[in-house]
Amino acid sequence: MDKRHWIKTRTPESRALFERVKVATRLSATISEYSLDDPEQIQRIFEQLIGKPVGDAFTLIPPFYSDYGLNISVGRTVFIGSQCAFTGHAPIEIGDLVMIAHKVNLVTAGHPVEPGQRRDFITAAPITIGTNAWIGAAATILPGVTIGEGAVVAAGAVVAHVVPAATLVAGVPAKVIETLEGQK
Q1: Which of 146, 180, 183 is nearest to 163 (CA)?
Q2: How many domains does the chain divide into?
Q3: Looking at the domain assignment, is residue 74 inside a domain?
Q4: What confidence score (pLDDT) does residue 13 get?
Q5: 14-33 as b/e, with b when 16 or more CB fall inside 10 Å?
Q6: What pLDDT shows up at residue 2?
Q7: CATH classification at residue 21
Q8: In sequence order, what E strands does 31-180 have?
Q9: Is 5 a catalytic residue?
């Protein structure tokens, strides 16, 4: 089942999304002005960005970028490294105990492949990251992907398909490299 939805450009809906992009990029820039010496400020502004509280023991190392924000949900004891970008207009659900390394991209939006439709539509599909998953440095998670509980995405991987629970994926495109025995 394709979870992707299409947003027509140059419509009231797309204009409303663009207004939210202005707010989210401003809040992202504000987060990025802080250092780890100001964890309460980082958390306060991140909660403004996503429109809800984050779980216990939240850590985010700036800079950080999001172009929408209200679609992000964060569980407890989540770590987000520096230079991460969470983009697009579909939900991003991050479970408890998730670690997201530096320079990770969570991308929920794109455009149709057909040249005649690219400027007329934005496509969007959710990303879900299961409990105790670890996303390695500079990995990219594409629209519609679910990362299973306890899974590991290797550094630099580009994930375009579901990652089963308790597996290690690596490569471009990411493929299962091994099953993680300690996670069963």
Answers
A1: 146
A2: 1
A3: yes
A4: 85
A5: eeebeeebeebbebbebbbe
A6: 60
A7: 2.160.10.10
A8: 59-60, 64-66, 72-74, 79-80, 84-87, 92-94, 99-100, 105-107, 109-110, 121-124, 127-129, 134-135, 140-141, 146-147, 152-153, 158-159, 167-170, 175-179
A9: no
Catalytic: which of 89, 102, 111, 161? 111
Residue 180 forms part of a structural domain: no
Please tell me the distance from the alpha carbon of residue 78 to that of residue 129, in angstroms, as a whole number. Answer: 11
Cα–Cα dist 127/80, whole Å: 16
Residue 181 inside a domain? The answer is: no
Q: Does residue 101 form part of some domain?
A: yes
Task: Return phi, psi of residue 126, to 5°.
Answer: -70, 160
Domain housing 115: 5-174
Which residues does residue 127 pair with via DSSP β-bridges, in sequence order?
A: 92
pLDDT of residue 56: 75
- Please say whether the beta carbons of 109 and 90 come within 8 A: yes
Report, as ranges of residue numbers, the positions in the chain whose pLDDT lies below 70. 1-2, 182-184
- Return the pLDDT at 58: 97
